[in-house]
Specification:
Blueprint: H1 8-15, E1 27-28, E2 31-32, H2 38-48, E3 49-52, H3 64-74, H4 80-93, H5 109-121, E4 127-131, H6 139-156, E5 159-163, H7 167-172, E6 176-180, E7 183-188
Parallel strand pairs: 3-4, 4-5
Antiparallel strand pairs: 1-2, 6-7
Helix pairs in contact: 3-4, 3-5, 4-5, 5-6
């Protein structure tokens, strides 16, 4: 967490191999990802990292199911049968099976975020990077997304890193790292609160 401009999104981009540091090294899962070339970075992302973006980044001409399936076609090249099962299982897990044939402009913000979460998880990553995943959601939808991610963490042993201002996420976090001006300001392991 940290104020706007503190480096939260930049840090996620560095961890996700979307940006390279100007100096120093970034190690993720035992690999120096800052040394990867574009091909190595793309392969590492495709095999290890899922992304949930604040603005969803769903492809407007694809249905919800096709948006979730996209990483399995473009990055992992899974069989049609395997793709179908994974997409169906995850859309069911996020409560979007009944909306699978709808396009993004036919979905609410919360529904788009659920599809984005399913897309981030479909490749079975080891790590999901979520940039302000609840910023545009109402209270109930935000908590359902948080609870879904906690469930996925437990079921699939996936680690999540959030960039957020949202106290709802901060209250659920195991570790809170505060950034200020691009630097680590503090690291805390808060006592998690339960919500009503």
């Amino acid at each position: 967490m940290g104020p706007s401009g503190s480096g939260k999104t930049t840090l996620l981009n560095l961890i996700g191999c979307l940006d390279k540091p100007t100096t120093g090294h970034v190690r993720v899962g035992g690999f120096d990802v800052s040394a990867f070339d574009r091909t190595q970075a793309a392969y590492f992302r495709g095999e290890n990292i899922g992304f949930v973006f604040q603005d969803f980044n769903l492809i407007p001409v694809l249905t919800a199911a096709e948006n979730v399936e996209y990483p399995l076609i473009m990055v992992q090249r899974r069989s049609k049968a395997e793709r179908g099962k994974r997409v169906s299982d995850l859309l069911d897990a996020v409560g979007m099976s009944d909306r699978k044939n709808q396009f993004p402009d036919q979905l609410s913000g919360g529904q788009k975020q659920r599809v984005a979460v399913a897309r981030a998880l479909v490749s079975r990553p080891k790590l999901v990077l979520a940039d302000e995943p609840t910023a545009n959601l109402d209270r109930d939808t935000a908590y359902s997304i948080i609870n879904l991610m906690k469930k996925m963490r437990t079921e699939f042993n996936i680690a999540f890193i959030f960039s957020t201002h949202d106290p709802r996420i901060i209250n659920e976090a195991e570790v809170v790292i505060t950034l200020e001006d691009g630097r680590l300001a503090s690291r805390d392991e808060p006592v998690r609160k339960t919500h009503a």
